[in-house]
Amino acid sequence: MHVAHLNHRLRGGEAEADAKYVVQLSEEWGLPVHIEAQDVAALAAERKLAIEEAARQARYAFLARTALYVDARKIAVGHNADDQVETVVMHWLRGSGMAGLRGMQFKSRMGTLRLKGENLKDSAAARKLQLVRPLLQVRRADIEAYCAVNSLEPRFDRSNLDTTYYRNRLRYELLPYLETYNPRIREVILRSASVLAADYDYLRQQRDKAWDQTVRDESDRAIAFDLAGLRGLAVSLQRSIIREAIHRLRRSLRNIDWIHVENALGVLQQGSTGAIATLPRQLKAQVGYDRFWVCDRDYAEPTPHLPLIADLDVEVQVPGRTPLSGTAWSVLTQVIDRHKLGARDWRHDTPWRAYLDFDVTGTQLHLRNRQLGDRFWPQGLGDRPAKLGSFMTNAKIPRAWRDRIPLLVSPQGILWLAGWRVDEQAKVTESTRRVLVIEFQKAQNGH
User: Fold this and answer.
1) Is residue 301 part of a domain?
2) How many domains does the chain have?
3) Is residue 115 predicted with pLDDT exceeding 70?
4) Is residue 306 part of a domain?
């Protein structure tokens, strides 16, 4: 057992007296003690944080440093059941999800505390330190009664009475008011937090499985997911994976706003290639061709494994296979009665396969690159054709790719901007009788 106490230098002589009390009590009980002082007000100003948050970060960082110094593996703190109630209500008012509404945990790793600006994030030993809260189910009144019975005289922090602090307002104003509606509101909140904690653990297990199934690449700047796989998950898992990706790239970010996750979710579910959602701390979520990225805002998706071909102009055999000379790619076409396709998705299950109305496309098809004056009517966008270049700009297609993207054309015009959209006039509709299925395929290992 080793005692550690941080003087926040917020209460002058009273804070100094608290530190002396800790030293004296530790000596009486024969326990080693470590005392430090830090100017929390200056820290809050430097990091542009509320005093409470700055104190929290300074305190936990100090405890972690002390634990490493004395070779301890666990840090015990005195949070009680009343603290838990206040924490859950604070998170609820902030708009937290399930992770916040479960409140504090009996055991957690220091690596989950997200201590901004502290030199602990690179220390594997610090991240693995276990934080324990043995009094988390004990009411504050019961602790005070225990002290009275055993002639213990704890110090009283007068700042706990100051209702300019957010937590104190909850303690002395909001919770007593809620008790006028339900005298047992604290028990209700604690019970709800316990239930949500169990639900959260289950969801996290499912998220970890889904993460392993959908993640395709991960670095300190970007995480890429299989787009189709991620879109096939339940919405709750999609949200959870987006949150986890943000956390992994910005571990010191304590609060991830609901609006950021929802914006990223909207882009994931409905965005076309190139669609972007802005995330906190210079991150973004972006739809790729067959990937969904959470990454640094200035991160550029690597050149994809796609048929970007210069000087392309080739007749397309319908039906049949057309090799694209000088590349490993070929184009496969087939004509199928619509009713034989069953429930297949005309919205294109891969960017490199398209479903078109064969009675519109005909058989006089060829592939080429874009030309000056090209116009295109992207499915679902606008009420008439527009400049192809404008669509490419709005879709945020990298400029270096635009002259090498294959276009499927007929004498009537552009039918498909490969990898992005089919033309509105060639889309499959309820009246479609025959469907042209066209797909780019790349030879694997020479076959």
Assistant:
1) no
2) 3
3) no
4) no
- Mean pLDDT, residues 119-139: 83
Strongest mean pLDDT among 39-43, 127-131, 344-348: 39-43
Domain shared by 247 and 114, yes or no: no
Which pair of structure tokens corresponds to residue 200? 């959260």
- Ramachandran area for residue 101 (φ above 0: left; ψ -120 to 50: alpha; else beta): alpha
Please give the mean pLDDT across all residues of the chain.
Answer: 89
Q: Is the dihedral of CA 256, 257, 262, 264 positive or negative?
A: negative
Residue 447 is predicted with a pLDDT of: 47
Rounded mean pLDDT of 28-50? 94
Query: Looking at the predicted structure, is the pLDDT value of residue 300 above 90?
Result: no
Residue 66 inside a domain? The answer is yes
User: Do 254 and 351 belong to one domain?
Assistant: no
Q: What is the DSSP letter of 399?
A: G
The pLDDT value recorded for residue 446 is: 47
Three-state DSSP state, 403: coil
3-state secondary structure 178-196: HHCCCCCHHHHHHHHHHHH
365 φ, ψ (degrees, to nearest 5): -120, 150
Q: Which residue has the higher pLDDT, 231 or 116?
A: 231
DSSP 3-state of 314 = strand
Q: Could you tell me if 36 and 168 lie in one domain?
A: yes
- Claim to verify: residue 35 and residue 155 sit in the same structural domain: yes
Same domain? For 144 and 25 the reply is: yes
Last residue of a domain, which of 264, 296, 328?
Answer: 296
Q: Which helix (H) or strand (E) holds 26?
A: helix 13-28
Q: Is 165 exposed, middle or buried (0-12, 13-18, 19+ CB in 10 A)?
A: middle
Give residue-wise pLDDT tens across range 43-89. Answer: 999 988 889 889 999 999 999 999 999 999 999 999 999 999 999 99
Those residues with Cβ within 8 angstroms of residue 61's Cβ, 6 or more apart along the chain or in another chain: 115, 118, 120
Residue type, 434: R
Structural domain containing residue 125: 3-179
In a domain, 207, yes or no: no
Same domain for 244 and 322, yes or no, is no
Write the CATH number for 143. Answer: 3.40.50.620
146-174: pLDDT as tens digits: 999 999 999 988 888 888 888 999 999 99
15 and 89 share one domain: yes
* 25 and 140 both lie in a single domain: yes
User: How far are the Cα atoms of 32, 184, 225, 274, 300 from residue 289, in angstroms, in the given order?
Assistant: 60, 53, 11, 8, 13
Distances (CA, A) of 161 to 94, 119, 156, 157, 164: 22, 33, 10, 8, 9
* Structure token pair of residue 172: 């002395």
DSSP 194-218: HHHHHHHHHHHHHHHHHHHHHEEEE
Asked whether the beta carbons of 324 and 330 are under 8 A apart, the reply is yes
Q: Residue 80: which of 138, 148, 132 has the closest Cα?
A: 138
